[in-house]
């Protein structure tokens, strides 16, 4: 295993524990203890995944997340306080892929890290019966091999989680998916978080793919049930 992980936490004992446990799993690990150092090590270390605490000196985790997302698309897992629901939602809005609530178990953290790294790879995790060629839905083209979504030929800058969500909906076009089902299918493990995680990711995705996110044409809400991706020929 040669994946590289950047751990960002201003509490050195926590960072040391995370570094030790991740290295035991075979990861390359580098730690940063404030926001400025985190951004410097993103450039110099080139991590495959970032574990990012919300509360940091200099620049907080939200600002670091925002800056990283301007240039990179590696998975970001936010480390939030026990009651930091606002932190979780805001982090997802800024482009984080996941969050872990402190205090967390080593087993839970490793599950989240490995799931997010698996999702980073453009692999055929849906099984041999699922199409591996590009999926065309009107002006949208979802290409699982290139890990790319284009709209009218123009590439759309998506996070890994956003891509996995639109890919999953595209592979089940017209099928309404509950939020709970999407948490398990797209997030890749038994996820006990708030279903608002799905709502936030859908809203962020709509802002990128829809002409008018307030009146979505593609990612449609079925009130009281969940979401589905609508084919242009499908009746309203």
From TrEMBL:
Cell compartment(s), UniProt: Cytoplasm
Record field: transmembrane: none
Primary subcellular site in the record, as a coarse category: cytoplasm
Domain OmpR/PhoB-type: 132-231
Pfam families the UniProt entry points to: Response_reg, Trans_reg_C
All copies of domain Response regulatory, residue ranges: 4-117
Gene3D superfamilies: 3.40.50.2300, 6.10.250.690, Winged helix-like DNA-binding domain superfamily/Winged helix DNA-binding domain (1.10.10.10)
InterPro entries for this protein: CheY-like_superfamily (IPR011006), OmpR/PhoB-type_DNA-bd (IPR001867), Sig_transdc_resp-reg_C-effctor (IPR016032), Sig_transdc_resp-reg_receiver (IPR001789), WalR (IPR047791), WalR-like (IPR039420), WalR_REC (IPR058071), WH-like_DNA-bd_sf (IPR036388)
SUPFAM superfamilies membership: C-terminal effector domain of the bipartite response regulators, CheY-like
PANTHER family in UniProt: PHOSPHATE REGULON TRANSCRIPTIONAL REGULATORY PROTEIN PHOB, REGULATOR OF RPOS
KW DNA-binding (keyword) present: yes
NCBIfam families linked to this entry: resp_reg_YycF (NF040534)
Highest taxon above the source species: Bacteria
GO BP of this protein: regulation of DNA-templated transcription
Residues the record lists as 4-aspartylphosphate modifications: 53
GO cellular component: cytosol; protein-DNA complex
Record's protein name: Transcriptional regulatory protein WalR
PROSITE patterns: OMPR_PHOB (PS51755), RESPONSE_REGULATORY (PS50110)
Presence of keyword Transcription: yes
Keyword annotations from UniProtKB, A to Z: Cytoplasm, DNA-binding, Phosphoprotein, Transcription, Transcription regulation, Two-component regulatory system
Annotated DNA-binding residue span(s): 132-231
Any GO molecular function: transcription cis-regulatory region binding
Organism, scientific name: Marinococcus luteus
């Amino acid at each position: 295993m040669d994946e590289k992980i950047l751990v960002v936490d201003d509490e050195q004992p926590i960072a040391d524990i995370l570094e030790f446990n991740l290295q035991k799993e075979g990861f390359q690990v580098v730690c940063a203890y404030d926001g400025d150092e985190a951004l410097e090590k993103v450039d110099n270390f080139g991590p495959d995944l970032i574990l990012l605490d919300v509360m940091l000196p200099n620049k907080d985790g939200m600002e670091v997340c925002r800056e990283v997302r301007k240039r990179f698309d590696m998975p970001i897992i936010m480390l939030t306080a026990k009651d930091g629901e606002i932190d979780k939602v805001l982090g997802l809005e800024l482009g984080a892929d996941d969050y872990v609530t402190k205090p967390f178990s080593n087993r839970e953290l490793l599950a989240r890290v490995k799931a997010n790294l698996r999702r980073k790879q453009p692999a055929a995790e849906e099984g041999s019966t699922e199409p591996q060629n590009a999926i065309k839905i009107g002006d949208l083209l979802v290409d699982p091999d290139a890990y790319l979504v284009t709209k009218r030929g123009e590439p759309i800058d998506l996070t890994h989680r956003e891509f996995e969500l639109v890919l999953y909906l595209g592979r089940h076009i017209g099928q309404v998916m509950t939020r709970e089902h999407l948490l398990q299918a797209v997030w890749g493990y038994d996820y006990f978080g708030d279903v608002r995680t799905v709502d936030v990711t859908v809203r962020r995705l709509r802002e990128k793919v829809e002409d008018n996110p307030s009146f979505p044409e593609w990612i449609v809400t079925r009130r009281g049930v969940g979401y589905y991706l609508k084919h242009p020929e499908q009746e309203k």
